[in-house]
Design a protein that fits this description.
By secondary structure, this protein is α/β, with parallel strands linked by helices. It has helices at 4-18, 59-72, 80-83, 87-100, 111-122, 137-150, 162-171, 195-204, 227-230, 260-269, 271-274, 281-296, 299-318, 337-349, 379-395, and strands at 35-38, 42-46, 104-108, 128-132, 153-157, 178-183, 208-212, 239-243, 254-258, 329-335, 352-353, 355-357, 367-372. The protein binds pyridoxal-5'-phosphate (PLP).
Length: 399
């Protein structure tokens, strides 16, 4: 006998399968890398990982994680302020701040938590938070939570539309704190936020700018310091949130980088800090090693950029029409969700793992396969993937 909840969701699961939108998990039996061993498939080329710099299996990074485990054990078995916090967390937070160019940083168990903590902890009912329409789900939920917790006013501006944002800031001029939140790189489009315009507008309206650089840290800028470095504006963003689960080792975790006062206030008041354990020390240690690796190997960032440009040019040459851009996120729009999932399945049968994304992750009718390139893909990896793209593209009459 199933309960009322199970009775409701069981037919929905069947419907997902019937309409071709059901997500099947693929199990890997090797570290994340350009080529992985996938259960039931053998070796496949990964074109859907955020392992942009290839650091998740970098020997120095793996070694640091093991040493962290040996030195600090599995964890404190409590939250940081109750049971002590490890010295490796302090070193990691100093490295995060140094990397993105802020006075301080505070780590969280995920960037999701960091994005939840920022508006929900820092705002009050006197304030306003405005979020880009295409921001990541963690920002959207963080804003919703802030509204419920603090009773702050919330608004959404049209994607990248500075005129709309300006009008909303003008309308809210009597609000005490005005917070604007944007992704640095928009994860489903691969496009970059117009940071110079945003900084100028926020200064004009005395608003606080928050940039989620989860896809930009380690990726944008000459040395991978993120969106601010890309535009030559390091030190000009008020609050940066980012993840340790993508370019910086790919394990898990996130951080808020900002002034010492803001980080201190979050330490005192952010509920994900106060009521949830810290990052495991093994992850803090491997993430720290990832940042140190990035700081001493800027050539990885150059290789990432070269690989992304090569793959994009070759896709265009083959007749595909990826969304324009200059980041290692290269989406090819297909329309309906089922079409994206079908293309992804056909590519996987050719040994290339590219995820198809549909509604509600992207807007209705804009389902896509999203290619993500790594610095450690060889030309051989990319060429083999391109051969599969051409074959499936012809089969589906996309090119
Ligand atoms: C823009 C953005 N912000 C935040 C997150 C959440 O990161 P984490 O996995 O550290 O919670 C993601 C992950 O997909 C993301 O793409």
């Amino acid at each position: 006998m199933s309960n009322p909840l199970e009775q409701r969701i069981a037919p929905q699961l069947e419907q997902f399968i019937a309409e071709g939108t059901y997500k099947r998990l693929n199990y890997l039996d090797s570290p994340q890398a350009p080529r992985v061993r996938m259960e039931g498939r053998g070796e496949v080329i990964i074109l859907s990982s955020n392992n942009y710099l290839g650091l998740s299996n970098e020997p120095a990074v793996v070694r640091a994680g093991k040493e962290g485990l040996d030195r600090f054990g599995a964890g404190t078995a409590s939250v940081r302020f109750i049971c002590g916090t490890f010295t490796v967390h302090r070193s990691l937070e100093a490295a995060c701040a140094r990397l993105v160019g802020t006075p301080a940083a505070l780590s969280f168990v995920s960037a999701w938590n960091a994005n939840e903590a920022v508006p929900g902890t820092l705002l009050t009912e006197e304030d306003l938070v405005i979020s880009d329409q295409l921001n990541h789900a963690s920002i959207i939920d963080g804003v919703r939570l802030a509204k419920a917790i603090t009773k702050c006013q919330t608004a959404v501006y049209q994607h990248g539309d500075l005129a709309d944002l300006g009008a909303k800031l003008t309308a809210a001029r009597h609000r005490r704190v005005k917070m604007v939140i944007t992704d640095g790189i928009f994860s489903m489009e691969g496009s970059i936020a117009k940071l110079p315009d945003l900084v100028e507008l926020c200064r004009k309206h005395d608003a606080v700018l928050v940039v989620d650089d989860s896809h930009a840290t380690g990726v944008l800028g000459k040395t991978g310091r993120g969106t601010a470095e890309h535009f030559g504006m390091v030190g000009q963003v008020d609050i940066i949130t980012s993840t340790l689960g993508k370019a910086l080792g790919g394990a898990a975790g996130g951080f808020v980088a900002a002034s010492a006062e803001i980080c201190d206030y979050l330490t005192q008041r952010a509920r994900p800090q106060l009521f949830s354990n810290a990052l495991p020390p093994t992850v803090a240690a491997s993430s720290l090693a990832s940042i140190e690796y990035l700081e001493t190997h800027p050539e990885r960032v150059v290789a990432l950029r070269d690989n992304a440009r090569y793959f994009r040019d070759q896709l265009l040459g083959a007749g595909f029409k990826p969304l324009p851009g200059e980041t290692p996120i290269i989406p090819v729009i297909l329309g309906e969700t089922a079409a994206a999932i079908r293309m992804s399945d056909l590519l996987l049968a050719e040994g290339v793992f590219v995820t198809g994304f549909g509604y509600p992750v992207v807007p209705q009718g804009q389902a896509r396969v999203r290619c993500q390139i790594s610095a450690t893909h060889t030309r051989d990896d990319l060429d083999q993937a391109l051969t599969a793209f051409r074959k499936i593209g012809r089969q589906l009459q996309l090119i």
